[in-house]
Structures are given as C-alpha cells and as structure tokens.
TrEMBL record:
PANTHER family: CYCLIC DI-GMP PHOSPHODIESTERASE CDGJ (PTHR33525:SF4), PTHR33525. Coiled coil: none annotated. It comes from the Bacteria. Residues 191-384 form the HDOD domain. This is HDOD domain-containing protein. It holds the Pfam family HDOD. The lineage of its organism: Bacteria, Pseudomonadati, Pseudomonadota, Betaproteobacteria, Burkholderiales.
Length: 396
C-alpha cells in the first residue's frame, strides 16, 4: 500500500476539521512539495491518497502549499470527497476562474483561504462553500465587516490550539475550526477528576498487566456491559481483520491475548471520556498511537511497536484525566521507555513522539528535522501517515 514515488517528493501534515458539536468532519491534509518549482503531478498525488481516502471514504481538505502543484490540481478531476483550499490571491486571479467554475460545477467543495485584498470576480464567488480565516487574521470584534467577501459565506477558523480558542471561534460564528485544541495546560490537582468508568478501565489494565486468569478478566468485562460491547465491536471491526464473528467474551479475550488486550484497553481508556470537548483530543491520541506504531512497522519487533502505540495513545491522557503524567502513571503500568517519553520527554520513544507532533503541526522544517533524527526518509514517514489515517478511519 502507498508505494507511490510521489511520497518521496512531498511532506505531509494533518489536522482535523471540527464542527460545533466537537465532531471531526474532515481531515485537513497539508502537502509541501519538496521542490516547489518542480512539484509532482497532481494525478500522482491523488493516486497516492486514494487508498486512504477512496471516493466513498471520509472527507479530506487538501491544503497544497505550493502554487504550481495547486494550479495543476485545479485542472484535475477530483473525487467529490476531496475538498480544495484556494488562497485568496489565486481565487482573485481571473486566470483560475474557469478551473474553479469547473470544479464547482462537478460538485467539489472549494474553500477560500485568507482575506482577498481585492474583490473576487463575480462569477467566482459562488464557487466557494466556505472561507478559512486564521486566528492571526481574525477581525470579528464587533466592528463593521471590512471590504471583501469573507463574511458572505460561512467561515472556518484556522490555527486553533486550545479549547478556549475553539469555544471563542464558535461564539464568533465559525461553523468549524481547523487545528488541534490540545495545548491547554494541565494543572496538578493532586487527584484525578476522571469518571468512574475510566478508573474501571485502569483497574482492568492493571489486572491484564499482572496476567490474571481469563476467568477473572471475563468477570470484570461482564460487570461492565459498555466495556464488553466496545470490545466486541472492536474485535469484529474491519481493522481487526478476522474472518469469523466473535460472540463470546472468553473467546475474544483468548483470541486477543494479554498484550493485544492491553493495547485495546489503552485505546478504550483514551476514548472513554464523556466530555464533548475531549473528542478532538481522543481523535489525536488514537492517530498518534497508530502513527508511532507505523513508523517502525518495517524495522521494529512486535514489542517495540506495541510500546510506541501505547506511548502515542497515552500521550494526551494527562488532558483527558486532568492529571499530570508524573502522577497519572503511578496508577497505570507502562513500560519504562513510555514513562520516560511522557514524563521526562526523553528516552528511545520520545523522538517518535516529536515527529508525530511535527506532522500534526504541519511544520515542514520540524518534520524534516525529526525524520532525520530517527533516520527515516520522508517517503517512509508519508507512508506511515497514510497507513495510520486509513487504519484510524476503520476504527471510527
């Protein structure tokens, strides 16, 4: 999967598009051509992305950071689930009017990025379904709207990094936000404010870590119908790849084994919060785990892959449990390398976490530096990103 040569010619970053209900409605994929003056062909890029976002798959918003590649993309027939972000200066250029009209007429969703310095051509304005306004360019302060078109169509707020910024954006009328609202500080409280069901999962993780008999694990699962239901749904999902349906708790536990059961419980722990504001955090945590695992798929043994998965999934648990890692990991058993990465920001797993954060930030310089630090070629990183995002879509 994803052996396309184009993956060695670009750097990829991703972030979610989040609606007012805190649900992720699309992935924003940022694409940096390694050689902006000699970019790959748009058709080659679309072929590489097709496995992760097939025509009947989820929505993806293409943020192409390279004018030549974007111009080529505007001339290409796109699947309808692929949205295109167009900088305001290109939208205002009459040279692109025909291409924009053609995409719009085919049903593709177009987003104008930034504030036009000059009015858009009359025939182009209806082509855009949304505008993207970054926080650094936000002017909605109660004053009359400035000239331009940004307030005649629904707007999406970009550069969102905290829950407060997300809430403020929606209060200003944004229909969605772009970014990762996960940078809020974790304040040491001396105790976790997590819900009881999260504590039950922690208890089961500890029992699995002690490798207690299947009968005891099965009894815990039966006492928590919600947990049992989620286990059965997960093990029978396409992501698990089984050819037969599993209907009993005992069979599921025996089939998973202790290590894979612990992996599933880590995923469940990271996704069990009832707080709607935590949905983007859960979204990030699941993809971090899958991506960190994929980064060593070709070179890492199963134990190392499992540790990196746990490290990624748990990397935002402090925000979900509202407790610093130094306190939190006293009650949750994790390998020493995972503890070092999360508590001390050190150890063999931490460079992989840094790379994942760089990909999330869509910072091409940080992506390249972090990739070099762990001796991974850009093509390997991009393949891992697309595999992780495809696997995550199956789990959603």
């Amino acid at each position: 999967m994803n052996e396309h040569p184009v993956l060695g010619q670009v750097a990829l970053g991703y972030s979610p598009m989040i609606d007012r209900h805190r649900a992720v409605t699309a992935v924003r994929l940022t694409v940096f051509p390694n050689k902006p003056d000699a970019p790959p062909r748009a058709g080659e890029l679309l072929a590489a992305l097709g496995g992760t976002w097939p025509a009947d798959g989820g929505r993806v918003s293409l943020n192409i950071v390279g004018e030549n590649l974007l111009q080529d993309l505007l001339q290409t027939e796109l699947p309808l689930n692929m949205m295109v972000e167009v900088p305001a200066f290109m939208a205002a250029d009459i040279a692109h009017t025909e291409a924009l009209q053609a995409l719009h007429s085919r049903g593709n969703t177009l987003l104008i990025k930034g504030r036009p310095l000059t009015p858009l051509p009359r025939e182009v304005l209806p082509c855009f379904a949304y505008s993207i306004i970054d926080l650094s360019d936000e002017r909605r302060d109660g004053q009359p709207a400035p000239g331009g078109v940004s307030r005649t169509i629904p707007h999406v707020q970009g550069e969102v990094r905290t829950l407060g910024q997300m809430t403020d954006a929606f209060s200003r009328g944004a229909i969605a936000v772009l970014g990762w609202p996960i940078d809020d500080a974790v304040v040491a409280s001396g105790k976790s404010s997590a819900q009881p069901d999260l504590q039950a999962i922690v208890e089961l993780i500890n029992r699995v870590d002690r490798q207690e008999p299947v009968e005891r694990l099965e009894a815990v699962m039966k006492n928590d119908p919600t947990m049992a239901f989620k286990l059965m749904r997960y093990i029978n999902s396409p992501a698990f790849g089984l050819s037969v349906e599993i209907t009993s708790f005992r069979h599921a536990i025996m089939l998973l084994g202790y290590q894979r059961l612990k992996r599933w419980l880590a995923l469940l722990l990271a996704s069990a919060s009832r707080d709607a504001n935590m949905r983007p955090v859960i979204y990030a945590a699941v993809r971090r785990g899958l991506l960190m695992e994929e980064l060593v798929r070709e070179t890492g043994d199963p134990e190392r892959r499992g540790e990196l998965f746990i490290c990624g999934v748990f990397s935002l648990l402090d925000r979900m449990m509202k407790q610093p890692f130094a306190e939190l990991l006293r009650s949750i058993p994790v390998p020493e390398a995972v503890r070092a990465a999360l508590v001390d920001e050190d150890g063999p797993h931490f460079p992989y976490l840094e790379l994942v954060r760089a990909v999330e930030s869509a910072s091409v310089y940080d992506i390249r530096a972090a990739s070099d630090n762990i001796l991974l070629a850009v093509a390997e990183v991009n393949r891992a990103v697309l595999r992780a995002l495809a696997a995550a879509r199956q789990l959603d």
